[in-house]
Specification:
By secondary structure, the chain is mainly β. It is built from no helices and 16 strands. It has strands at 11-17, 22-24, 30-39, 43-48, 51-52, 63-68, 74-80, 89-96, 101-110, 112-116, 136-139, 147-148, 151-152, 163-169, 172-179, 182-189. The strands form five sheets. A five-stranded mixed β-sheet has the order 2-9-8-4-5, with no helix packed on it. Strands 1-3-7-6 form a four-stranded antiparallel β-sheet, with no helix packed on it. Mean pLDDT is 77; it is low at 156-193.
């Protein structure tokens, strides 16, 4: 009796379908969908800004479900019912396996007054770059003001800017502001806090 030899190739996850940015009124429901395939079959994880949504603190606000279809594609849904302005922001789905990962992100805007979500404290070593995402909700938002202590960045923005890079040398702190592809730099004297 002859033997048959089978080989299984492994390849990185790929996203087959993703959700798009949307603007919604409060009280509605939304289903965000990500479908992915790969070998081995990837796991799909959901994030709100950079926070993993399977954490205990989010279980009463979101429902996550998934299934594998007949083509071997994992289809995952994030359901938000009775959406409020606090649910607005940057959502991401990530398909991850032991080979690699791939991520998709889009903003869900919810009409309402501005709201800044909790930001965790961040500690870095001096001279390292730091990127901070401003976790905001509400729509529309005309401007964002960044502040360190009593120092305000002198910027009024029509659109949201998301990242701030900080480098510390001796007693000076340099702030590198990234807005679209334009770069601005602001230097000020550091004070011990």
């Amino acid at each position: 009796m002859p033997f048959n030899c089978f080989t299984f190739s492994e390849y990185a996850p790929e996203l087959r379908s993703t959700f798009q940015s949307q603007s919604l009124r409060q009280g509605l429901s939304i289903d965000l969908k990500c479908a992915a395939f790969g070998s081995p079959l990837p796991q799909v994880r959901w994030f709100f800004y950079s926070k993993l949504l399977s954490d205990q603190s989010y279980q009463n606000r979101y429902r996550i479900s998934d299934y594998v279809d007949s083509n071997g594609v994992i289809v995952s849904y994030l359901n938000i019912t009775n959406i409020t302005r606090e649910n607005g922001g940057l959502y991401s789905c990530e398909a991850i396996s032991r080979i690699d990962s791939v991520k998709h992100s889009a903003k869900i805007h919810v009409y309402g007054s501005p709201y800044v979500h909790h930001m965790d404290n961040v500690t870095i070593v001096s001279s390292q770059k730091l990127y901070i995402d401003c976790p905001i909700s509400g729509h529309p938002i005309d401007s964002i003001i960044w502040r360190k202590g009593n120092f305000f960045l002198d910027l009024t923005l029509i659109n949201i800017f998301s990242f701030l890079a900080v480098q510390h040398f001796d007693n000076l702190i340099y702030l590198f502001i990234l807005i679209n592809d334009a770069k601005m730099m602001k230097k000020f004297q550091s004070q011990e806090e």
